[in-house]
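We now fix the convention by which a protein and its fold are recorded. The integers have meaning only within a learned vocabulary of local backbone shapes. The record below shows the convention in full.
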Amino acid sequence: MILGDQPTLVLIRGPACSGKSTFVQEIILEHPNAVICSTDSFFIQHGSYVFDKHRLKEYHRLNLERCKDAMDAGAPLIIIDNTNILPWEMCPYVCASIEKNYALKLISLPALDLKTLLNRNLERKNTGKFIPPEIIKHHEETYDETIQVDELKQWCLSNQD
């Protein structure tokens, strides 16, 4: 059960190629009115995924704005479909959930071995969503699936600028 008594923000976490977007599609079957905020969606141009690392920071900012707009509109369920590997990457969303009185849920996908992630990445090569292997390796090395909501909130609040 994802949706409780108050509006809910769900952060989906996992390395690139771990199945986050597929998992989100399963959630949509149960919650068809959920708002999905994915930085990847900004890289879709004319129906194709075209990654531009120079626009990544801008697109993350736009994704956060889209999330906040959905909160302001009273969306009961908002799902952030990003890698969310490290705590600092999630903090803008955590702080928004606190500010807008949204319950926060964290769904960390199980860690997968590097070989599996790299094989999944190869399967995506023709989609334009191929990721440089060194990024996947970095994700696999730094991903901690054991992070809990309370410790994440505490970390974010104590590390605000």
Q: What stands out?
A: The first strand starts at residue 8 and ends at 13.
